[in-house]
Amino acid sequence: MFNSTEREEKAYLSSINELIEDKYVKISSSLNGSSQDIAEMKKEFWENIADMDGAEKAANREQIHSVISSSENTADIKRDLEKLRNSPYFARIDYKDDSGRLPVYIGIKGFRDEETKKSLISDWRAPISSVFYDCEIGPASFNTPDGVNEGHLELKRQYKISSGEMQYMIESNISIDDEVLQKELSSTSDEKMKNIVATIQKEQNEVIRNENAGVLIIQGAAGSGKTSIALHRIAFMLYRYKNTISSSDMLVLSPNKVFGNYISNVLPELGEDNIQEIGFEEIAVDVLGKKVKFQSFAEQVSSLLEENDPEERGRIEYKSTVGFLDMLDDYLSNLERDYFKAQDVKLGGVVLPATKITAYMAGLPEMPLKKKMDKTARDMARRMKDFFEKKHREWKTEYAAEMKRKIEAMFQFRSTMEVYENFYTFIGRPELFRLLPKRMLEYSDVFPMAYTKIAFESIADYGYVRHLLVDEMQDYTPVQYAVIGKLFRCKMTILGDSNQAVNPYSASSIEKISSVFPESECIRLCKSYRSTIEISDFAQAISTNPDIVPVERHGELPVVYGCETEKIQTERIRKIIDGFRTGSYKNLGIICRTQRMAEELYGQLKGEDSVSLLDFTSTEFTDGIIITSAHMSKGLEFDQVLIPNVSDHEYHTVMDQKMLYVACTRAMHKLDLTYVGEKTRWIL
Ligand SMILES: Nc1ncnc2c1ncn2[C@@H]1O[C@H](COP(=O)(O)OP(=O)(O)OP(=O)(O)O)[C@@H](O)[C@H]1O
């Protein structure tokens, strides 16, 4: 067998390292050379520009651009080689098929021998690499663009290589759910999310390589790798469609800036550029305009947690149903029939009969009513102007504006806001629309109003986006998805966990979302990788998800500290912090029920070293001790988590239960909780 012993493998690794180093040195010097060339070409251009005619200037510019673009490509290759220098590959498969091919080494990027042109390392996204993720020793196959390749897998080996040195090598006969995965999961967290290429599991690989779904919805338990997989899926697509899609064609709809920062390492680690991100509230501003003021999602969550007003809850719940979207659709599709009454228009003594307006509008193709009225006014004014000219009558320029005004007046409402407000009269529930002080919209009205605006006025969509990634799907309502459906006409990956809704009154399940995207494909992921069995079981007792299967990894039991007084609780918190400081974990998340409580605790602990507060204005996720709210902690993870104040006074509603579940499931290795008084009902 080729490289059968560890010694042979190590020698082979050295030979590969040499080839990589060789190429790296060549590329670096050619890059230095092209930087000098570009500088000289630019200098020459500016020195001679006065003597050049237009065509010469254009030709010179073109030449400079082409050298720049080729050196950008070289810089990309250099970046890839830097990754390979550290760890050229992480796996090997010996796959035998009719063409007789045998060992395939798999790495983050592909690498070939310059002289022989032979592929030495296969990119983890290449078709053959899927054998590593999908197959066990024995008959095996993989999909290629030309069909299925049938063969036989004879060996599967995994390596841990860092700084060019082999740390270990493991023969893995069954799945990748073995020693390497255990080692990866037991290590302390990195500051940011990391790539999982070496241990992607079979069911995860299926999601990553799914090319057919227009809209792919992933419901996955806490810690099941949804976010990781979605990012690897993006990297896969950038590889698979490299000639037609680039990272600038992709967009991630993320819950906040910290989350965006937290996931920002994965694509660069995979050798791809990061993709742009946007938040739902930015979309709302794009649609509604800067003048419309509205409550943020975080403010809505805080208000529910702090006020717990049943009427507010009722309004939110009502607007989060699929039925609500159906009613809004029904109302908006009949605006013209129900609220537009054509009338005769008299201009300069000539009458345009209402019947003509009605007939003209009926002949127009489907378009938002406001556009239809504008077009009708323009076209009617043009026709009347022709008529005036034929009859030698004077056509005054202001008649066109008058026509527009008169046609607009045939519609019962002046603005999108009026149209939206009337919807509640239409459904006989005017009490469900409440403006906050200073005419601010409640958050639950923001997207129904945006949907109304798109239906009534139409607005520019995000036509440039070819793939949209929506994370934390459970926190968005059917109307929000309907808005997304109108604005993004591209492929989508939507992921989340209905068990982690930070506002259970407006949470969306996979069923709700797929009813908005009937063509979607839905996938459920049940295996959970983040937390130890002990932490997973503890979280399960708070909010049970019968489908969850935690990866077999053990750790300390979570500890719930009952404290007699607030002072004793603060002392306990300080003790836990001291323990963290002397231990080996890199980060400790102190997760409070609300942002206000997080701020209070931060105030109390301010004297402590390297404690930082994470709120909705934060932009970065850092190592150390972080105090934050359960809402803000969504999507993040910590080696160790401390949840203070888990008394029944603080945590008693269904919403509190969800918050507690989210907070507990952020912990990878260690979880502590403290309370004063009576322990919350959600902990047994
Ligand atoms: N195949 C895998 N190999 C190694 N680690 C994995 C694998 N899948 C997931 N993980 C790890 O599990 C943790 C959770 O992953 P991720 O944050 O993507 O899950 P999630 O489903 O989005 O979580 P949540 O919904 O709870 O925020 C991360 O540390 C990730 O690296």
From TrEMBL:
Catalytic activity, as annotated: ATP + H2O = ADP + phosphate + H(+); Couples ATP hydrolysis with the unwinding of duplex DNA by translocating in the 3'-5' direction
Enzyme class: isomerase
Catalytic activity, EC: 5.6.2.4
Domain of life: Bacteria
GO biological process, alphabetically ordered: recombinational repair
Residues holding ATP: G220, A221, A222, G223, S224, G225, K226, T227
Domain UvrD-like helicase ATP-binding: 199-532
GO cellular component: cytosol
Keywords: ATP-binding, Helicase, Hydrolase, Isomerase, Nucleotide-binding
Molecular function terms from GO: 3'-5' DNA helicase activity; ATP binding; ATP hydrolysis activity; DNA binding
SUPFAM superfamilies: P-loop containing nucleoside triphosphate hydrolases
Protein name: DNA 3'-5' helicase
